[in-house]
Amino acid sequence: YTMHRELAGLLQQMTEVGLQVDVGYINRLRDKFKDAQQELKESFTFNPDSPLQVRKFFKEQGVTLPNAQEQTVRDAVEEYPVNEDLARLLDFKELGDGPDRWFGPKYLDDDGVIHASLNFFTSSGRFMCTRPNLQNVAKRRLDRKTGELIGKKMRRAVVAREGHWLVRADYKSAENLT
pTM of whole model > 0.85? Predict the structure, then answer.
């Protein structure tokens, strides 16, 4: 109990201090994502934001999509690897909200700090992060043009505040240590 209480207090302090973000970098990254998304959007003969148009277009090509969600398109790309339209649609879908999913204006205060809610599950001891979920930055997704991991691009936005440090830790098997 004492350890949980102390940990909860520490996580609350971390929430209050927040996470400094390089807003200029995020703005440049957002612009690149929007430009790439617009370029892809203009390359289609259908509206890639319209599930109805997406499904209709690919049905005419003999590809039946139950929906137009990213995972469905990814599965279809694996099934039809030579279909360039599907590959481009997947590129479009993967761009999503770009950095705004994690570093959008709704999460940043006036100083460019995110005060994400940090806590832990008492039953498992696992950490959780909400508003935004900074534990879920696109780690494995690739930028198909550069071959760089998108998560690396996103994590470059996080900078240490004056008098603070960034510490990297691997907790994927932490519950096995108890």
Answer: no
